[in-house]
Write a structure and sequence with these properties.
CATH class of the largest domain: Alpha Beta
Strand content: 15-25%
Number of domains: 3
CATH topology of the largest domain: TIM Barrel
Distance between the termini: 29 Å
Radius of gyration: 23 Å
Shape: globular
Largest sheet: 8 strands, parallel, barrel
Helix content: 25-40%
CATH superfamily of the largest domain: Glycosidases
Number of strands: 21
CATH architecture of the largest domain: Alpha-Beta Barrel
């Protein structure tokens, strides 16, 4: 549980998708030096934590989430010297930096896996999960890959299958191996010693697999039109995910992190607040992302259901998100255009009032919607390798910084993904407009810091209402109107409107809120 002397208490995080943030060398791909050049924007916005997606050496089969060297920077993104310079600049600006750690799997080109294939009786074979074929010669069990097809690939030379919950180029590591555990403890120490302030742990609900490799129960038959995600969701992943032994790893990492005043944030992609709480007992990962806000429908009941469970069960160990590099942007999910932007900002206002740490995804502060891309522009292996799957490219396009070629992202003739947003949506244009979405988001970040509500304070929820969802916390009311008509909310006789995402009207003991608008009110009792 964060306390006042832990620097992430009441912090605000910001995810940088490294490939798409800023290109310093004109090759059309974002890089470390480009991020360092743009840190002033994040300091001006007021965030505290900058989370960098993987920048390690990689063949880029999954854009860096297939790591070939955990202790070096891929030349596409720069060098270790560039990373050190970024850390220096970030710390000068009062920003903490955390990086993506990918411990569930490595690249198939990592020296460990290359050695494991070349020497089936060698020391590295046990670094990965190998099984003999089933009696019919097929995969050892029914586990599925997130990217489509079985979670097993046959290695012809040895005649055994290796496990991969993602691409075949991403073999899963064997966390029952003491050698693997030792390797990653040394990786943590390497980066913490350089000054890194923490890690976001990819696939934090993974790592350990069932020791007997039992089949996962089938929840429903797979339909012909199902995409990769729907197929994965057809199984109850009780044997390939969420094994209790994983917590032992995080407790060991916690002890290392404590020596460096570092934070561990899990990509805890689970379906229930109960499962989230199981991954966050308090002595391992410091924070865990809750993704229920990524799938919710726009209604008061749905918003409250998505927020209430994590807030009560996990409290200030929750990392709140409504946007990331893996999902459609909230502006698009909530209807697009002005209505999508109002709803997105309204939900974010509630998240900023809850215990825990909210994270923004790059471009979220600009109110960006999903990009519009042609089929030939798509690069995500989810889309390229699977029918009926759209992939994640539309939320990963380059950041619009200002007018000019490529909206200030790059001087290249072609960028790795095309830009799809207009100059009027860019950082430069919105900074020049005091009424812009960007200035509203900046004011919300500032308000969260100014309120400095006790991290341990839990929300007191308003009575269930089909039009309004809200809570009181630390003497402050956070409320959102999800209806299509204005609504009135009872407030204390003496109350002060601190923030509104749209038109609000205060009267004696009453707050009137327009549709899709959120408000923050200090009540004096």
């Amino acid at each position: 549980m964060p306390t006042d002397d832990q620097w992430w208490a009441n912090a605000v995080g910001y995810e940088v998708y490294v490939r798409s943030f800023a290109d310093s060398d004109g090759d059309g791909v974002g890089d470390i030096a480009g991020i360092a050049d743009k840190l002033d924007h994040l300091a001006w916005l007021g965030v505290d934590i900058v989370w960098l997606t993987p920048f390690f050496r990689s063949p880029m089969a999954d854009f860096g989430y297939d790591v070939a060297d955990y202790t070096d920077v891929d030349p596409l993104f720069g060098s270790l010297d560039d990373f050190d310079a970024l850390l220096v600049r970030a710390h000068e600006l009062g920003l903490k930096v955390i990086a993506d750690l990918v411990p569930n799997h490595s690249s198939d080109r990592h020296p460990w896996f290359v050695s494991a294939v070349a020497e089936p009786t060698g020391a590295h074979r046990d670094y990965y999960l190998w099984r003999d074929p089933a009696p019919d010669g097929g995969p050892p069990n029914n586990w599925l890959s997130h990217f489509g097809g079985p979670a097993w690939t046959l290695e012809p030379a040895s005649g055994q299958y290796y496990c991969h919950l993602f691409l075949p180029e991403q073999p899963d590591l064997n966390w029952r191996s003491p050698a693997v555990q030792h390797e990653f403890e040394e990786i943590l120490r390497f980066w913490f010693t350089r000054g890194l302030d923490g890690f976001r742990v990819d696939v934090a609900q993974g790592l350990y697999k069932d020791a007997q490799f039992r089949d996962d129960p089938v929840l429903r038959p797979v339909e012909a039109q199902d995409g990769a995600r729907e197929k994965f969701a057809s199984l109850d992943h009780v044997h390939d995910l969420l094994q209790p032994e994983t917590l032992v790893i995080y407790r060991a990492w916690n002890r290392i992190a404590q020596q460096h005043d570092a934070v561990l944030v899990g990509e805890t992609y689970v379906e229930s607040p109960v499962a989230l709480a199981q991954l966050l007992p308090g002595d391992g990962l410091h924070l865990g992302f809750w993704f229920g806000t990524m799938q919710l429908q726009w209604s008061a009941d749905a918003v409250r259901e998505a927020l209430e469970g994590p807030a009560s069960l996990v409290g200030d160990r929750t990392a709140w998100v409504s946007s990331s590099h893996d999902d459609h942007r909230p502006v698009t999910r909530f209807g697009g255009g002005d209505i999508g932007r109002r709803r997105s900002l309204g939900l974010t206002t509630l998240l900023f009032g809850l215990p825990g740490v909210p994270f923004l995804y790059q471009g979220e502060e600009l109110g960006l919607a999903d990009a519009i891309l042609r089929a030939e522009d798509l690069t995500d292996p989810l889309a390229v390798r699977n029918a009926n799957t759209t992939g994640r490219d539309t939320c990963r396009t380059p950041m619009p910084w200002g007018p000019g070629p490529n909206l200030g992202f790059s001087e290249a003739e072609h960028t790795w993904l095309p830009l799809s947003h207009g100059a009027h949506e860019s950082v430069g244009a919105q900074r020049a407009d005091p009424a812009s979405f960007l200035h509203q988001m900046r004011a919300l970040v500032e308000l969260r810091h100014d309120l400095a509500i006790d991290p341990a304070a839990l929300p007191e929820w308003l009575p269930a209402d089909e039009r309004v969802v809200g809570f009181r916390r630390g003497g402050v009311l956070f409320v959102l109107n999800t209806d299509v008509d204005p609504v009135g909310v009872e407030v204390a006789a003496q109350a002060e409107l601190l923030f509104g995402t749209g038109r609000t009207r205060m009267g004696a003991g009453r707050l009137d809120i327009d549709p899709s608008v959120a408000a923050v009110v200090r009540e004096l009792r």
